[in-house]
Amino acid sequence: MLFRTGHRMQLEIILAYFPLSPSPATQTTSTHRNTMASDQDTAALKATLAASLGPSAFHPGWSSLLDLDPPFFSASVALAAVPRQKSHLSHKDQALISLAVDSAATHLYTLGIRAHVTSALKEGATLHEVLEVIELSSTLGIHACNIGVPLLVEVLREEGLFQEDVKRPFDSAQERLKAEFTAKRGYWHVFWEDFLRLDPEFFAAYLEFSSVPWTKVVEGNSTGGRGVLSPKVSEGGSRGLCTGWS
Question: pTM (2 decimals)?
Fold first, then answer.
């Protein structure tokens, strides 16, 4: 999923420098003849994508790949089609998780976002489900803290610097924040420890921000104030984002 998003974005950059409108002098070169597909081949490849991924999946990102390298387009469609064909997740859940990846700060792939929103709505997703996916994706930047701060503390310990700060036990306010995080987010991990210890104010602000999708109550929803997405989709999207970030 991440690879396909990345290579389509890169191909669009290539097209900005090498637009597909070759001069007469280059139209008859063997490279051009071997790379470009005939109109009939192009139509067949687009039909394969529509059959494998759905008619709404084709967008200018796929078009760029089809124009530049039809064999790689074909292989990419085959790769993308595998999870859809297996269908261990519903097509709606697949679209929502794909939306989480493409709307993450590390990607922001507009064409993919539009395609996955269209697909998710077509498969029955609600406005609140799509909105919650985007809200969950917005927390991706916190990895700078929950990964970076422990590394900072590791270096400080090695250098013997600020030992009182990095070893200080939690006070009562920090213990409350830890308990609140665990209650609202449903887990606790050791990589939050140094972050909370060194900057409880920022941790508290992040806790409030990140907890909204997990705790909001939406009218008509049956999750009991745990957002509108099922835990499977919420966690699946979050794991996908973490994998993409790393």
Answer: 0.70
